[in-house]
Amino acid sequence: MSDAAAIDPADRDALIAAARAAMAGAYAPYSRFHVGAALRFADGTVVVGSNFENASYGLSLCAETVAAANASQQGHRAGLVAVAIAGGPLGVPGAVVAPCGRCRQVLAELASLGHTDPLIIATGAHETVDMRLSALLPLAFGPANLRT
Q: How confident is the model at residue 1, as a pLDDT?
């Protein structure tokens, strides 16, 4: 599903550039696969994150999760409108990178706080795929499921 018109083209390009730049901050000594994520909020704020690996692989953090935690710490818990992700071996963009399942859930939680369905911009070296988070994670489990 292409929904690039939902974000201004200049803002979209800047968000992709921010995700690609965030790749440089990755700590990926094991996979050598650097990922950067950039989250754009309704007020124009962009918050970035990069992956942070751990020798105990299960403790590694994806770029999207780091960006979501950074955003929360900075007080951005509502109004998520778009997310760009870029990644590749040794920090060079390769094939299109989309959020893993865990990150889809983390982004869904953040989006639910502002009742948004953000545009996900999955980028690669030569291709970009735009889709809504709801298309990536249909029937997402969230805060509403815990209310009685």
A: 36
Q: Look up the pTM and report it.
A: 0.93
Overall domain count for the chain: 1
- Domain region containing 13: 4-137
Distance separating alpha carbons of residues 107 and 76, to the nearest angstrom: 13
Domain CATH code at residue 30: 3.40.140.10
The residues annotated with a catalytic role in the active site are 64
